[in-house]
From TrEMBL:
It is found in: Cytoplasm. The lineage of its organism: Bacteria, Pseudomonadati, Pseudomonadota, Alphaproteobacteria, Hyphomicrobiales. Belongs to the glycogen phosphorylase family. The keyword Glycosyltransferase applies. Its main location: cytoplasm. It comes from Ferirhizobium litorale. Gene3D superfamilies: Glycogen Phosphorylase B. It catalyses: [(1->4)-alpha-D-glucosyl](n) + phosphate = [(1->4)-alpha-D-glucosyl](n-1) + alpha-D-glucose 1-phosphate. One of its GO terms (biological process) is glycogen catabolic process. Keywords: Allosteric enzyme, Carbohydrate metabolism, Cytoplasm, Glycosyltransferase, Pyridoxal phosphate, Transferase. This is Alpha-1,4 glucan phosphorylase.
Amino acid sequence: MNTSSKADLPPPAPRTYDPDVLAKEIIERLTYRIGKDAKVAKPHDWLTATILVIRDRIIDKWMESTRKTYETSAKRVYYLSLEFLIGRLLRDAISNLGLMNEIRDALSSLGVDLIDIAGLEPDAALGNGGLGRLAACFMESMATVDIPAYGYGIRYMHGLFRQEMAEGWQVELPETWLAHGNPWEFERRESSYEVGFGGSVETLGGYDEAPRFVWKPAERVIATAYDTPVVGWRANRVNTLRLWTARPIDPILLDAFNAGDHIGALRESNKAEALARVLYPADATPAGQELRLRQEFFFSSASLQDILRRHMQQYNDLRLLPDKVSIQLNDTHPAVSIAELIRLLCDIHGLDFDTAWDITRRTFSYTNHTLLPEALESWPVPLFERLLPRHMQIVYAINAKILIEARKERGLSDDEIRKISLIEESGERRVRMGNLAFVGSHSTNGVSALHTDLMKETVFADLHKLYPDRINNKTNGITPRRWLMQCNPRLTALLRETIGDAFMDNAEALQALDRYADDPQFQGHFSQVKRDNKVRLANLVAQRMGIRIDPSAIFDIQIKRIHEYKRQLLNIIEAVALYDQIRSHPERDWVPRVKLFAGKAAPSYHNAKLIIKLANDVARVINNDPAVRGLLKVVFIPNYNVSLAEIMVPAADLSEQISTAGMEASGTGNMKFALNGALTIGTLDGANVEMRDWVGEENMVIFGMTAEQVAEARAGEYNPRAIIEGSSELSQALSAIASGVFSPDDRNRFESLVEGLYSHDWFMVAADFDAYAKAQRDVDALWLDSAAWYSRTIRNTARMGWFSSDRAIRQYAKDIWRAG
């Protein structure tokens, strides 16, 4: 067979965007790929057929992008993340291809509605919250700004979990998004790699030779790649999201099966498949911790083997790796990659340790997403050494190199040495993955200006002294394609009609809207768009939950992962206090308000799950009390995901960004809400600080302690009990919650939650309550002045362009990756 002639064949001609041709191809896919006659096809059949037709047009751009990268020898960026919260892809792909009208017309000619079938696409269960959604936004922006990139993660069969409510309690059920296949992905059987665990390390070589280390794993699994194309705006580039699934070397032990041990025969298969089954297995048990570490090493090792294979195939020189490759670690989850790359360079490719260390540091960069010391992953040394014995040796070798340099060249004290060590020595000895990621990278970036400054003073203070030029800031961003143009088409149409199309290619062109903020006619159009979006959300709430909410009320929305530092509890307590006030003072002109919550709590996070139960218990009482007269409603919508956010964000009047100051790294929900014309009520935390600078403090509602004040209170003699007893609203609300007013079936249910506020209140709920309650009444007053309200919300939309992920990616490319 003459294979050279294959390479010389010209690529196929790009496919047409003509609606008649699209309609014909949809019928062909329906008939020959799905095996259905159009007369009996179901909506999900039309969805799959449409995706396959769109996918063909993406492939044209995908292959063109791949050829361009290879021919120009462009530097590739590899983004390693345990999460990619990509959401539904059909509308995103159609919009970025510029095919929206054509595909709508094609389907219409076949008697099919695009909106109806697009809503059937499952959300990919590949993430949980902001970190995973940021990764998805960044992948889309890298394609948009023409950065050749791969995203690497795990192809979770069930993802995090599907959240349902049982009498107000969170129940975790498997998310079955892959039950009927995924038409967007391509299996790459040729991209399969062995990944090992456990075993032993042998040292080879004579007394006059440099030692060679051979890791002999006790267990091995096969990582196989599945590729999903990621389309940039106007299909400028199509990049690749490569996700790994795990398979056993031997899928079944046939001898054991034939001997009657049917369960034992599948033990290795089940163990391998567990690696790609669930995102964030509960790590409260040793088994859960081990599975989590296995997952992180599994996808890190497979990704690095794939990166080196691709690099060697094109350049055949590993010393060029930092010039041709940049690897970004999205938090500490892939931090074991530092040790794995050194292992591959030394043990597999024969480089010496110092050369491998130099290549590694110049190749990797690390994004930190948390100031919580407990969230900077660490692993017990015995677990790490048992599971990854060669990597434990490498970690010790890196540590020795760093500590000797710190002692001899920098003169660090014993205390300073302990703080920068990769091994935590106080109490149980643990491997500090944050420190490993820091020392093994040439760049460590925060994700907002405040977060970056606090990183230098807190979690990485001592490493910052040792490497003062390594920490830098890259404030997060969101893609305006999904978070404005796709999720809010009515507002997008109004913007295009008012200021033209420039903002569609450059989000900062939204600034042209500023001059319309006080225009009564434009305010009227803007308010009508908001109301239409609120009606859509109200219909969803009625359909899913049987609760009627009034679109004329303030839609006050807090949607994010449930965590004590994000302070959903503060919001709920304020709802209870407002409930008391409405009943006690019916003569006042109360502003109707709907408080909407959504978010998932980690399965083992007791207090977070208790907060969800409290929200539902409070909702049940308030929503059914005729004395409230419909002036206040509380709704917790289950199973928060990207698709739900795309409905809730455009409908928000008020955006709750009320985390304890100094604890939210950045936030991206705050940006999505403001871009869609919501007023932010928030603390000066994370990117709220920069939003205030861009939007204007007069166009936000800022309250509460600053990060410095929080730190001072924690270090001093903060007395939450005195604060609670000094606030009649707060003390009454807490008394009602603790005494069982909202939990008559179990009057002690929330006693521990309330007692935590009285005894220590680490998250400053009591300290900020009065300021928060006052800020909410300021919101009420502003709401009554419609012109003033819309003047502020329009300016939020106009001034949020800087928070585009395109801007963020350009900064990463210029300052960290040296790419593009």
